[in-house]
Amino acid sequence: MVVGVVLLYIVALAVMLGVLIFVHELGHFIAAKRSGVRVDVFSLGFGPKLLGFKRGDTEYVLSAAPFGGYVKMAGADPDQETTGDESEFLSKRKGTRALIVLAGPAMNFLLAVFMSVVLTYVVGVDTITTRVIGEVASGSPAEKAGLREGDTVVAIGGDTVKTWDDTIAKLSKDLGTTVPIVFERAGAVDTARLDLSGIEDPYGAGMAAFSEPVIENAKIGGPAYKAGLRGGDKIVSIGGRPVASVNAVRRVVLASPESLLAVSWERKGRLHSSEVRPKNMNGQGMIEVDFRVEKKHIGLVSAGKIGLRYSVWASTQFFVVLHDLLTLKVSRTMVGGPVRIGMIAGEALSWSVLFFFQLLIYISAQLSIVNVLPIPVLDGGHLLLLGVETVRRKPISARDRMIAQQIGFAIIIAMFLTLTFNDISSIFFKK
Question: Per residue in 310-341, is it b (16+ CB within 10 Å) or e — as a string?
Fold first, then answer.
């Protein structure tokens, strides 16, 4: 099992880096071709050439290491001799070169938007159509109002609710007030007063919707997966207790870290049984399953708006993290390098392909920002040199370009080593 999980992590990292870097380089390739810049090599992967063919001026190569790819443009490398031919990168106008440089990060952002739109359109968005209360938090406004698990919400503040989404919307509208809430219990309708004056969001009311304990994903290698549970299974009992809701399962599991629990589930009309030992996560039990959430399918236009909005949000999280680092709100050890990215990618894939794609979208959006940082070697470094050329009104010499690139490599290597050290330290020197 351990070997299989390690291989899964390696595959996840290879696929993620391969897709992200390949799409990035494809952006440069397309922009260069359309701008009349000769592309000598376009490689899928790095290292020794496995396969290749030449079409026009470009050799298309499949290389041994499947971690991305690269584009070799005529006259783009500082150590490459230039002839002044119009097909060379440095012979193009500064605006054209800037567009070629920006095409890589732009493709990463477009990939994030495209994948986000497609996933939203195909999978749908979370929705809750039930009106049944699945959990009432201890000491919450809902408990103080006398509401119980199993009650059905009928109306809030005089407005009828038809779904739990309606319930959340009504609570949001009435924050800061005390409202009447009509509910049904055991066939009888009653009314209570719900005090919303001391909460900041509707979830602070302390009640959650009922949801059947149907598993969407069981993490590969996790306690539930080892016990035989899979996506689509409905948990019937755990720890010797019948359970009818997700919250009932969670109550038993959270209170039983490292305890051996009997578990029964229904799969395609047949009952199965086993034993599961929840992991101890900060004193609470976890069996590492993701429960099914009802989805609502939406139109392509709505999916497009959601996908674009999410991609913009994901890209701006880079600045949030940077701000928190500079203001010491988070430790530098919280920033991950290649090892941690590989671990996170493997974790995502061990849950589901959907989780892996969601992580790919997030990282691709952030790469669109990271790559325009003004560090030589990165695309932002090339833009910086173009800016210097514009201010000086003369080209930068090949020697100065080489020096800038060497400085950039030194910065990148230092960052790589620091982040890798942080990753390894977090794995082997946990407190």
Answer: bbeebbeebeeeeeeeeeeeeeeeebbbebbb
Final residue in a domain of this structure, among 252, 287, 322: 287
Question: Taking the alpha carbons of 165, 169, 172, 174 in that order, is the dihedral positive or negative?
Answer: negative
- Rounded distance, CA 151 to CA 132, Å? 6
Per-residue confidence in pLDDT tens, the chain, 431 aa: 566 667 888 888 888 888 998 899 999 999 999 999 999 999 888 788 888 889 988 999 988 876 677 888 887 776 666 677 888 888 888 899 999 999 999 999 999 999 999 999 999 999 889 999 998 988 999 999 999 999 999 999 989 999 999 999 999 999 999 999 999 999 999 999 999 998 889 999 999 999 999 999 999 999 999 999 999 999 999 999 999 999 899 999 999 999 999 999 999 999 999 999 999 999 999 999 999 999 999 999 999 999 999 999 999 988 887 777 777 676 655 566 667 777 888 889 999 999 999 999 999 999 999 889 888 778 888 888 888 888 888 777 767 777 777 777 677 677 666 666 665 665 555 54
Q: Which amino acid is at 238?
A: I
* CA-wise closest residue to 207 among 292, 252, 148: 148
Q: What is the CATH number of the domain that holds 195?
A: 2.30.42.10
Following DSSP, what letter does each residue of 348-363 receive, concatenated?
HHHH-HHHHHHHHHHH
The CA distance from 131 to 206, in Å, is 15
CA angle centred on 286, ends 285 and 290, rounded to 5°: 150
Q: Based on the fold, state whether residues 61 and 95 are members of the same structural domain.
A: yes
Phi and psi angles of residue 221, each rounded to the nearest 5 degrees, phi first: 85, -5
Q: Which residues contact 81 (CB under 8 A, 6 or more apart)?
A: none
Query: Looking at the domain assignment, is residue 349 inside a domain?
Result: no
Helix (H) or strand (E) holding 170: helix 164-173
Q: List the domain range (segments joined by +) for residue 222.
A: 215-287
Residue 52 three-state SS? strand
368 belongs to a structural domain: yes
| Cα-based torsion angle of the residue sequence 247, 249, 251, 256 in order, rounded to the nearest 10 degrees | -160
Closest CA to 33 of 70, 61, 68, 71: 71
